[in-house]
Specification:
By secondary structure, this protein is α+β, with helices and mostly antiparallel strands. Helices cover 33% and strands 17% of the residues.
């Protein structure tokens, strides 16, 4: 499922949105807002209007164009205000976004409907990917000039840059009640020759805090987990008890119809350290599968640490990817079907 192309974002959507806001601001100067507000709050039918306004305020994310506003806000926010550089360790760090269950998202069991998790995952992923890979997008988008994406014959790939969503899986652990706040923690877990895999945890709001923040957008922090002299963990907390649900998604990056290796996207943004032999090649086209040896968790953030983290996440991602084969189970109702029902 395509989640949109960014090739039109700067030349079309940004100028159109800016022009619309300027025109709306200009027209607003001719309106007597004091009279309108007075009539709204005191005129006939005021109770119905105020209740409708309150209902819309509580359910804005579920109203028409609510999803679009949330997605494009993430694009504009990070393209405009992202730090110029991020530490390489940020590659596997979490992006944290807060939200709240609206009344229109609540099902007949009086908790957040399962289907609505996927819209939230869209928004959380957009914050993560735009923040981490935003600087890479215009570089790859102008590939004719930068010549980073080449075919097997060394020819420069041309075309519009876009991002596609290949699949989403969500595991539900405990419900989220009406109007209950929650946080979405998203991070990159791995990549292979085609897909970038992202995990999103729905977490009880305010219960989990990171030990530090990479940029200027910060929240509360906690102390690091204490370790014994031999490196073993003392009294490790059970963070999973704060998880409502966990989703896995996979993204593909495209130039026209050509698939961009995820490592090219990450490297263009300066988030991959140098690796002997490069990040492509070998049996799986993700670098030579050499023995990484023992990794120092507290040491320098080098290519071995990045590769160890990628391989660890790939153990889970491969199981997720194997589900693609379930389309082969579809036999077109060879042995019949139950029925065809109305109002789908």
């Amino acid at each position: 499922m395509a989640v949109g192309t960014l090739s039109l974002f700067f030349p079309v959507f940004i100028p159109a949105a800016t022009a619309s806001l300027v025109y709306a601001g200009h027209r607003a100067t001719f309106v007597d807002w004091r009279v309108i507000l007075t009539e709204f709050l005191t005129g006939p039918g005021r109770t119905s209007r105020i209740l409708l306004l309150l209902f819309c305020a509580l359910n804005w994310k579920s109203l028409p164009l609510g999803w679009t506003v949330r997605i494009f806000h993430s694009f504009i926010f990070h393209f405009a205000r992202r730090p110029k550089t991020l530490p390489q360790r940020a590659l596997f760090h979490y992006s944290v976004t807060s939200s709240r269950t609206s009344l229109l998202e609540t099902d007949y069991n009086f908790h957040k409907s399962n289907s609505t998790y996927f819209a939230d995952v869209d928004v959380s992923r957009s914050h993560l990917v735009t923040h981490l890979l935003g600087p890479s997008m215009p570089i790859i988008g102008d590939n004719e000039k930068n010549k980073l994406v080449l075919d097997k014959d060394g020819k420069v790939i041309k075309g519009s840059f876009g991002i596609g969503l290949g699949a989403v899986f969500c595991s539900f652990r405990r419900e989220i009640g009406p109007m209950q706040g929650y946080e979405m923690w998203s991070r990159i877990v791995s990549w292979d020759r085609k897909w970038l895999y992202i995990v999103t945890h729905f977490v009880v709001k305010g219960k989990v805090k990171p030990t530090s923040w990479d940029g200027k957008w910060k929240g509360p922090t906690r102390s690091k987990i204490q370790k014994a002299e031999d490196g073993s963990v003392l009294d490790e907390p059970d963070w999973s008890k704060y998880i409502h649900a966990t989703a896995i998604s996979k993204y593909v990056f495209k130039l026209g119809r050509f698939t961009i290796h995820p490592s090219i996207m990450i490297q263009a943004g300066g988030l991959l350290p140098e690796r002997p032999g490069g990040w492509r090649g070998g049996e799986d086209d993700c670098g030579d599968m050499v023995d990484l040896g023992e990794i120092d968790a507290e040491g320098e953030w080098d290519w071995k640490k990045v590769e160890a983290e990628r391989r660890k996440g790939l153990d889970y991602a491969n199981h997720f990817g194997a589900l693609d084969g379930t389309n082969l189970l579809f036999d077109g109702g060879e042995d019949g079907a139950i029925g065809k029902f109305p109002v789908g």
